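Handoff note, outgoing to incoming analyst
You'll be picking up this chain. Sequence as last confirmed:
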Amino acid sequence: MSQSERPASPEALTEVEAEWEGVDVDAPLVGIVMGSQSDMPEMEKAGKELEERGIRYEIRVMSAHREPTLVAEYASAARMRGLKVIIAGAGLSAALPGVCAAHTDLPVIGVPLTSKNSAAGGLDALLSVAQMPPGVPVACVALNGARNAAILAAKIIDA
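Most recent structure output, in case you need it:
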């Protein structure tokens, strides 16, 4: 691994975070991520709810399985970029919410999604999001519950 590929040290990240604290920008407060472009119709419901509440957000597609480094970098830098909550939607094995939670101290809300390949109507995704190990908490909303995830994110931000 070359020097440029190595993640920044915790000390360097703390220095950068301190510099960003005083910057007043219209940064998004909520990050919405999903494992596949096919998840967009459901996850856009979270964006719509946040828009109606006047909460800035960003929305991205990234796979915990196909792009694990990208997901880790996104979650690791989320607080520094001004995010307060991450909403992560995924189907099948639904690893994305847990991977995000493993790389950030921000609240992560998991949205288990159904698909034509889901086991038992989405039970696979639901259990993957809800059954996180101790120390890696992920809030879990209902199957295809992106709108509820946005409402929960809004409550967290106002808390």
